[in-house]
Amino acid sequence: QQQQKQQQQQEKQQKQEKQEKQEQPQQPAVIPDDATTVMLRNIPNRYTSGSLLALLDDHGFKGLYDFVYLPMDFQNGVNLGYAFVNMLHHEDAMAFRDKFQGFQCWRFDSAKVCEVSWANPHQGFDEHVERYRNSPVMHPSMPDEYKPMVFRGGQRITFPAPTKVIKAPKLRLGRDRPRDGGKEEGGPQDIPPEERIPPPPIVA
Predict the structure, then answer these.
(1) N or C: which end of the chain has fewer CB within 10 A?
(2) Stretch 20-29: mean pLDDT
(3) Rounded to whole angstroms, how far apart are CA atoms 50 and 145?
(4) How many angstroms separate the CA atoms of 152 and 198, rounded?
């Protein structure tokens, strides 16, 4: 039984890694001179939006970014291993790359080595807002910690309103799916209180 459980865990991990590889966008052939949006790869799956923001802030980038998105696997309740961060200036993005390229000091036990590259095809705050404002991930039924986040002056603000009716995601959310014993390590229910993303302030 123990052998069977280990085999199931290995198969689940292989499936997750395959999905991450399929989901991750292609890289641009030419590095733009004014690029501000970077993509982090090989993020441990237990990271949440809250722990990712804490990582950025702890390494000196608080107030230097205005967009962060950690895509999630809606069914399993874990991240897909990559994230997008838009910095305020190209120089900030270069410093970000220098800091996190090859990064391994994760708060969770993980052998993953972070890779940082320029986001493609979308670059900049405006393009990412337009990319996601009408996306199913912004549907009211989605947990707030699954959504892209925007910031001003280091504080999270309300994401720009959609320009059309948002369709609900077709997949069931991980938190609504039965888990082993009702709990699975690293899922949304394991988010520490200090790392839960507070909802943005209501802007009139």
Answers:
(1) C
(2) 48
(3) 8
(4) 15
d(CA 40, CA 117): 7
pLDDT of residue 89 exceeding 50, the answer is yes
| Cβ–Cβ < 8 Å for 86, 132 | no
Task: Judge whether 104 and 65 are in contact, CB under 8 Å.
Answer: no
d(CA 51, CA 43): 11
pLDDT at 167: 86
Rounded to whole angstroms, how far apart are CA atoms 55 and 62?
A: 10
How far is residue 44's CA from residue 57's CA, in Å, rounded to a whole number?
Answer: 18
Mean pLDDT of all residues in 26-32: 53
The model's pTM: 0.72
Strand partners, 83: 40
Q: Report how many helices (DSSP H) and strands (DSSP E) the chain contains, helices first.
A: 4, 8
